[in-house]
Design a protein that fits this description.
The chain has 260 residues and is mainly alpha-helical. It contains ten helices and five strands; from the N terminus they run βαααββααααββααα. 55% of the residues lie in helices and 11% in strands.
Length: 260
């Protein structure tokens, strides 16, 4: 399923949502120097940027230890068989935030920004701009927390805005469960476009993440790939915290202007 738009109008121009999208796009093309396919993995700058500014669970659970690329693999200080010290790295706390604005390729970036645009503008409306910034960043941190709890010793660079965006999705599904979302449904080589309730679209997405995370935990895929538990952690944060951030008055105003 691939959402295209929802029927909840924006009350004010979504300054924060647009700014977050712009920051992610600028970061990918001008800071990471990502390419139009898979982030140009052959680029030494791109690789070095990921190693330095991505979030490594190992670095979080081993304070003061850092990871770096050694040939085609990654070695971390303090690991069995690893000697010497890593080159100077940015502080680990900083990577908790920089990793939220990094992506592994254009499809990764585009998919995340589409979800943020469709669902973020309405969540921003429901709580205001300052609260939305805090909500978004806390969602990203909650995503990191669960991923680290599940894979505390993983020497794998985690990047992407999807954990923070998952927090937005968790909030949206409670605020607007009956919102209509125009969605592309792919069936093998064919597709159709349907208008479905947000509860179905986002509920199905969350169940997918839980199942994929479970299977990943029980296979070799646990060592890398998609950080499914980050998605689960972010979404759970959104579910639990949205009532603390959102205004019921604003939500009712948004629903009153929705097109059903």
């Amino acid at each position: 399923m691939f959402p295209l738009k929802d029927n909840i109008p924006t009350i004010r121009f979504p300054v924060v949502t647009v700014t977050l999208i712009a920051l992610n796009v600028i970061s990918y093309f001008f800071w990471q120097r990502g390419g139009l396919t898979l982030g140009d993995p052959s680029s030494p700058h791109f690789q070095d940027n990921v190693i330095r500014y991505a979030q490594f669970p190992y670095e979080i659970t081993h304070p003061g230890k850092h990871c770096e690329a050694v040939g085609q693999s990654i070695a971390c200080e303090g690991m069995a068989g690893v000697t010497g010290s890593a080159e100077p790295q940015p502080p680990t706390w900083l990577t908790l935030f920089t990793s939220m604005f990094m992506h592994g390729g254009l499809l990764h970036l585009g998919g995340n920004m589409l979800f943020l645009w469709i669902f973020g503008n309405n969540v921003e409306d429901s709580m205001g701009r300052v609260k939305f910034v805090v909500f978004y960043l806390l969602g990203g941190l909650a995503a990191t927390l669960l991923q680290v709890l599940v894979h505390p010793d993983a020497a794998v660079p985690n990047i992407g805005a999807s954990g923070a965006i998952a927090g937005v999705l968790g909030g949206y599904i409670l605020l607007f469960p009956r919102a209509r979302v125009v969605t592309v449904i792919f069936i093998v080589f064919f597709f159709t476009i349907l208008e479905l309730p947000a509860l179905i679209i986002l509920g199905f997405w969350f169940v997918q993440q839980v199942l994929f995370g479970y299977f990943d935990l029980n296979t070799a895929g646990a060592s890398g790939g998609v950080a499914y538990f980050a998605h689960v952690g972010g979404f759970a944060f959104g579910l639990l915290a949205i009532k603390l951030f959102a205004s019921e008055r604003k939500r009712r105003q948004q629903l009153a202007e929705a097109r059903y």
